[in-house]
Specification:
The complex is a heterodimer.
Chain A: H1 5-14, E1 22-25, H2 28-37, E2 43-47, E3 58-59, E4 68-71, H3 77-84, E5 88-90, E6 99-100, E7 104-108, E8 112-123, E9 128-134, H4 141-147, E10 152-156, H5 165-174, H6 179-198, E11 201-212, E12 217-219, E13 223-226, H7 235-238, H8 248-255, E14 259-262, E15 267-271, H9 274-286, E16 293-296, H10 303-314, E17 321-328, H11 333-347, E18 353-359, H12 362-371, E19 376-378, H13 382-392
Parallel strand pairs in A: 15-17, 17-18, 18-19
Antiparallel strand pairs in A: 1-7, 2-4, 2-7, 3-5, 5-6, 8-9, 8-11, 9-10, 11-12, 11-13, 14-16
Helix pairs in contact in A: 2-3, 5-6, 8-10, 10-11, 11-12
Chain B: E1 10-14, H1 18-29, E2 34-39, E3 47-48, E4 51-54, H2 57-64, E5 68-71, H3 75-88, E6 92-95, H4 102-112, E7 118-120, E8 126-129, E9 133-136, E10 145-152, H5 156-167, E11 172-177, H6 188-197, E12 203-209, H7 214-225, E13 231-236, H8 260-269, E14 273-274, H9 281-292
Parallel strand pairs in B: 1-2, 1-5, 2-4, 5-6, 6-7, 10-11, 10-12, 12-13, 13-14
Antiparallel strand pairs in B: 3-4, 8-9, 8-11
Classes of the chains: A alpha+beta, B alpha/beta.
Chain lengths: 397, 298
C-alpha cells in the first residue's frame, strides 16, 4: 500500500524525523490559507499523487505547469492550486493516462545547501532491511546505481536491533557531513530505519534529503510503501489508503479480498493461485490472445465472491470471453461450479465462458456445470483450453 | 528414498484451528503419514480424534517426539510459531500460512541462524512424498510415486506440474513448495542439493516466477556444480506488467529486475530445459529424458 507525501511526513514526524512546516488540502482557498500561515515568503506547492516524477511531470490541461512548483511570491498559491486541483498529471510513472490531482500540499521553502538521497528497503538478497544513501540527491537513483554504483553507500540492518549508531555515523562520514549536521543526520538515519521497521514498511525513499545552510538535515520529500501483510497491525496507516488512486474495479476486488490486476486484453481470467493465474495469462498470450486481467480467486470460492469476480472482469467492455482455470486443492470444484452457475444467472452473463477444472471433487463440479444448461466450453488440457478461450474472444490478436 | 520427509517422519500440527485440523486429517488419511500430535495454545490436554493436543511445542517434543511440523497458525502469529518449532529442536518445519509480514520473516531468518531447523515456506502448499507422506494442503489424488522431483514457488502451478508428470505416465519422488514470499526459508538451491543426493530422483521440474533472483541463483548453482540430473523449468509471469504485485508478495518486477525473460535466459544458459508454455512441462520432461537416455519409469 502507498500513501501520499503529506501522509508519509505525518508518520515521519511521529518518529522525530525533521520535515519543513506545511499542510495538505483539497481546495485552492485552503491552500492559500496554509501558505499565509507559513512563516517563509518562499513556499512550495506539491500535487499529491502516489506516482513519482511529479516535478518533471506535466498537466494535460496546463502543459507548462509541473506537478511541483516553487513560489517566491506566495500570494499566487490559490491561483496555481486552482489549476492543479482536478487536473490530470502525467509523469513517467503514471502512464499516458495520468492521475487526477485531488489534493495539494503546501510547504515552507528551505535554504538548501546540498541534496542527498536516502532509502530503506527490504532486501531479498540479504533477507534484511538495507539503508542506502548517496550524495546524488534529486537524481534518478536507478541511473546512479547503474552508472556509478560506487556513489551509493549501504548498510545492512540488524533486524533485532535496528541501525546501529556506528553504522549511521559511517554513512554520515561517507556523505561528507560534519559538525551539527553529522550528529543530527546520523540520528535521522537511525530514525528512518526505526520508522521503517515499526510501520512494517517495504520501501521508504527520501529524495531529496537535504542539508540546509543553517547546518540542519531535513527530509524534504517522503515516499513510503507498506507491506500489505503487515497492515493488520497498523490500522492508522491502513486508514490512509486513498481510493482515488485505485480503479473502481480494484476497489471492489479489494472489498472481496480478490487479488486483481487490470490489463489491456480481451480474455478475462479467473484462476485459483497466483502462480497458476500468471501461467494462465502466459498461456493465453502463447495462444495468440491477450489477457484482460490477473485474478486470483484464492481458496474460498463462495457464490458471492465468484459473482463479484465475474462482475469485475466483465466491467471492462474489452472483455470478449472468460477463461476459468481452476486446480482444486483447498478449493473444491463442486463449490466453484455452483458459484459459477449462480454468478452467470445473477449477472446474465453475455460473453462466452471456457472452463478448465481439475482436482478436488472435479467430477461433481463438471456435472453441476453440465446440468446448468449454460453454454460452457470445457477442456481438460491447459493449452487446448487457452486456445478455445482465445477463439471464443474472437480469435488470435 | 525421497527428500526431507518419508514414511518414518513423525508429523506435528501447529495451529489446530479449522483449517489446520482439516488438512491435518487429510494428511493423516494419506498412506503412511504419521500424525503424532498437535499444538494449540489453550487446548492442551484435549484430543483431535486420537491425536493429543499440547499447549506448547516443547511439551509435544517431550511427549511424542515429532521430527517435522506443519504450521497453520494465523499470519500475525506464524513467525512466533516457526521460532517455537526451532527452539524446541524440530528439524523440519513447513509454514503453510499466507500473509506473514516480511519483516517478521527477516527476524525468523536471523533467529534460525545456527539452529538445526530447516524452514520450508511460508505461503506454500507444503511437501509430499507420494505413496508415503503428505505434509501440506495439496490434493493427494493427483500424485503418483515415482522418480521426478518437483520444486516450486507456487501452489496450484505445482499441482499443474504434478498432473502433467502423471499424465505422461511418470510419478514424483518428492514435491516441495518453497512459497511465494520475498523472504523464505528453503531456496531452490537448497532443494537442488537435496535432490542431487536422492537416488530415487532422476530428473527435476523447477517452477519459478517473476521477482527476486532465486531462479538466477539456481541457474548459477546448476552451472557451477555441473549438476548431473536434468532440470526442466517453467517461469510464470512472462506477460506480467512491471511494478504490479502479481498475487504473491514476492512476484513483482521491480526496477527492471526479476523479469521472466532474464530468468529463462539464465536457466537456458545453465543447460536447463525451459518450457515456454506452462502446458509443456510434461512433454519437455519426456523429451529431455529421451535425449539423455534416462529411464524414469522403473
Amino acid at each position: 500500500m502507498n500513501v501520499h507525501e503529506f501522509q508519509a511526513k505525518e508518520i515521519f514526524r511521529k518518529f522525530g524525523i525533521p520535515t519543513v512546516k506545511g499542510g495538505a488540502t483539497d481546495s485552492a482557498a485552503g491552500a492559500q490559507a496554509i501558505a499565509d500561515g507559513l512563516e517563509t515568503e518562499i513556499v512550495v506547492l506539491k500535487s499529491q499523487i502516489h506516482a513519482g516524477g511529479r516535478g518533471k511531470g506535466r498537466f494535460k490541461e496546463h502543459p507548462d505547469l509541473g506537478g511541483v512548483k516553487v513560489l517566491t511570491d506566495k500570494s499566487q498559491v490559490a491561483a496555481l492550486a486552482e489549476q492543479m486541483l482536478g487536473s490530470t498529471l502525467v509523469t513517467k510513472q503514471t502512464g499516458a493516462e495520468g492521475t487526477v490531482v485531488k489534493q495539494v500540499f503546501v510547504e515552507s521553502g528551505c535554504p538548501i545547501e546540498h541534496e542527498f538521497y536516502a532509502a530503506v528497503l527490504l532486501d531479498r538478497e540479504s533477507r534484511a532491511p538495507v539503508i542506502m544513501v548517496s550524495r546524488e540527491g534529486g537524481m534518478d537513483i536507478e541511473e546512479v546505481a547503474e552508472n556509478t554504483p560506487e556513489k551509493i553507500f549501504k548498510e545492512v540492518v540488524d533486524v533485532h536491533y535496528g541501525l546501529h549508531g556506528f553504522q549511521a555515523r559511517r554513512l554520515a562520514a561517507k556523505l561528507g557531513w560534519s559538525g551539527s549536521a553529522f550528529k543530527q543526520g546520523s540520528r535521522l538515519l537511525c530514525d528512518l530505519v526505526r520508522c521503517f521497521m515499526e510501520t512494517d514498511s517495504s520501501l521508504m525513499e527520501v529524495n531529496p534529503l537535504v542539508t540546509t545552510t543553517d547546518g540542519e538535515v531535513i527530509a524534504l520529500d517522503a515516499k513510503m510503501t507498506f507491506d500489505d501483510n503487515g497492515l493488520p497491525r497498523h490500522p492508522d496507516i491502513e486508514a490512509m489508503a486513498d481510493p482515488n488512486e485505485m480503479s473502481p474495479e480494484e476497489v471492489e476486488a479489494k472489498e472481496w479480498d480478490l487479488s486483481y490486476i487490470s490489463l489491456d486484453g480481451s480474455v478475462g481470467c479467473m484462476v485459483n493461485g497466483a502462480g497458476l493465474a500468471m501461467a494462465t495469462m502466459d498461456m493465453i498470450k502463447h495462444a495468440g490472445g491477450e489477457p484482460a486481467n490477473f485474478l486470483d480467486v484464492g481458496g474460498g470460492a463462495t457464490e458471492e465472491r465468484i459473482t463479484a469476480a465475474f462482475r469485475i472482469i466483465t466491467g471492462s467492455p474489452e472483455v470478449k470471453a472468460i477463461f476459468v482455470n481452476v486446480f482444486g486443492g483447498i478449493l473444491r470444484c463442486d463449490l466453484l461450479a455452483e458459484g459459477v452457475v449462480a454468478a452467470c444467472k445473477t449477472l446474465d452473463l453475455k460473453v462466452p465462458l471456457v472452463v478448465r477444472m481439475l482436482g478436488t471433487n472435479v467430477t461433481e463440479g463438471r456435472q453441476i456445470l453440465a446440468d446448468s444448461g449454460l453454454a460452457i466450453t470445457f477442456s481438460e488440457e491447459l493449452g487446448d483450453a487457452a486456445a478455445k478461450a482465445v477463439a471464443a474472444a474472437g480469435g488470435a490478436a | 528414498m525421497s527428500i526431507l520427509i518419508n514414511k518414518d517422519t513423525r508429523l506435528l500440527l501447529q495451529g489446530a484451528g479449522r483449517a489446520g485440523r482439516f488438512h491435518a486429517e487429510r494428511s493423516a488419511e494419506y498412506c503412511d503419514t504419521n500424525l503424532v500430535g498437535a499444538v494449540h495454545p489453550g487446548k492442551g490436554g484435549q484430543k483431535m480424534g486420537d491425536v493429543p493436543i499440547f499447549d506448547t511445542v516443547e511439551q509435544a517434543m517431550r511427549a511424542v517426539e515429532p521430527t517435522a511440523s506443519m504450521i497453520f497458525v494465523p499470519a500475525m502469529g506464524a513467525a512466533d510459531a516457526i521460532m517455537e518449532a526451532a527452539d524446541a529442536g524440530i528439524p523440519l518445519t513447513s509454514c503453510i500460512t499466507e500473509g506473514v509480514p516480511a519483516l517478521d520473516m527477516a527476524r525468523v531468518i536471523r533467529f534460525l541462524e545456527g539452529k538445526n531447523t530447516r524452514l520450508v515456506g511460508p505461503n506454500c502448499p507444503g511437501l509430499i512424498t507420494p505413496g508415503e507422506i503428505k505434509m501440506g494442503i495439496m490434493p493427494a489424488n493427483i500424485h503418483t510415486p515415482g522418480r521426478i522431483g518437483i520444486v516450486s514457488r507456487s501452489g496450484t502451478l505445482t499441482y499443474e506440474a504434478v498432473y502433467q508428470v502423471s499424465q505422461v505416465g511418470l510419478g514424483q519422488s518428492s514435491c516441495v513448495g518453497i512459497g511465494g514470499d520475498p523472504i523464505n526459508g528453503t531456496s531452490f538451491v537448497d532443494c537442488l542439493k537435496l535432490f542431487a543426493e536422492d537416488e530415487q530422483t532422476v530428473a527435476l521440474i523447477m517452477i519459478g516466477e517473476i521477482g527476486g533472483t532465486a531462479e538466477e541463483e539456481a541457474a548459477a548453482y546448476i552451472k557451477e556444480s555441473g549438476y548431473s540430473k536434468p532440470v526442466v523449468s517453467f517461469i510464470a509471469g512472462q506477460t506480467a506488467p512491471p511494478g504490479k504485485r502479481m498475487g504473491h508478495a514476492g512476484a513483482i518486477i521491480a526496477g527492471g529486475k526479476g523479469t521472466a525473460s532474464a530468468k529463462m535466459d539464465a536457466l537456458t544458459e545453465a543447460g536447463v530445459a525451459v518450457a515456454l508454455k506452462p502446458s509443456e512441462m510434461g512433454s519437455t520432461l519426456i523429451r529431455v529424458l529421451e535425449e539423455r537416455g534416462i529411464d524414469a519409469k522403473s
